[in-house]
Structures are given as structure tokens and as C-alpha cells.
Specification:
By secondary structure, the chain is mainly alpha-helical. It has one domain: Winged helix-like DNA-binding domain superfamily/Winged helix DNA-binding domain (Arc Repressor Mutant, subunit A), CATH 1.10.10.10. It is 61% helix and 6% strand. It has a two-stranded antiparallel sheet.
Length: 130
């Protein structure tokens, strides 16, 4: 994982966990990687991952089964989506609007490119098995 200097590492890791939850790679009530395992995978200090898990627990995204580990909360997807949506609308969207204004990109062009992006996303999904 590549970390940037604009945000605390534990929050970037929380974003990584949230993405795994939103992509259904870590479904509700599933045990997530241990603090040590995730720290080794991301090459960070275990204390940083512990801080991430404590933050996510305070947000109701994960819960701790004492002695067993952390698990995805049944409502984690909704909570992650709501948190990320609000953060995007408050912080990233104004910068995005500024950029498209400076570059004179029309809403029609954005709409067309977004439609193309969505089509590519659907095309990249694995086929459903019946």
C-alpha cells in the first residue's frame, strides 16, 4: 500500500479496510486480518493498525470478540458508505469542482465519461454462476 503525506496513516488504513468491506471482500460478521497480519501485509507498525481498528470500532464498522479478534459489523457497509460519502462531499468534491472549472470541462463531458466508466466497471465483473 502506498501512503501519502496528506493524511494520517491509520486513516489511510481505515480507508483500505472500508474499501474491502464495500467491495464485499470482507463480508458482515467475517473475521478480519489480525493486527499483526495486517501490519505485516501493509508493512506498518502493529500499533498503527491497532489505532485503525480502535477508530473503526468507535465508528461501529468492526467489533471485537475478546480473545478471538475483530469482525465486520453487520451494518458496516452502510456506515462506511455514509462516512466516505460525507467526507467526499465536504472535502474532495470542492477540489474536483475547482479543477473542472479551471480546465473548462463541461458537465456533459463528465456525464459521458462517467457513463463509460460505469460500463467498464460492469464489464469487468466476474460472470454470475447459475
Amino acid at each position: 500500500m502506498e501512503f501519502n503525506d496528506n493524511e494520517a496513516i491509520y486513516l489511510q488504513i481505515a480507508g483500505y479496510v472500508g474499501e474491502n468491506i464495500l467491495r464485499q471482500q470482507w463480508p458482515p460478521d467475517q473475521k478480519i486480518p489480525s493486527v499483526r497480519d495486517l501490519a505485516a501485509e501493509l508493512q506498518v507498525n502493529p500499533n498503527t493498525v491497532m489505532r485503525t481498528y480502535e477508530f473503526l470500532q468507535s465508528q461501529g464498522v468492526v467489533y471485537n470478540k475478546r480473545g478471538i479478534g475483530f469482525f465486520v459489523d453487520p451494518d458496516a457497509g452502510q456506515k462506511v458508505r455514509a462516512y466516505r460519502r460525507e467526507r467526499f462531499l465536504q472535502h474532495e468534491l470542492p477540489a474536483f469542482f475547482n479543477t473542472i472549472s479551471l480546465l473548462d470541462i463541461s458537465l456533459a463531458e463528465l456525464q459521458q465519461r462517467y457513463a463509460q466508466f460505469k460500463e467498464e466497471q460492469v464489464a469487468s465483473l466476474p460472470p454470475l454462476h447459475s
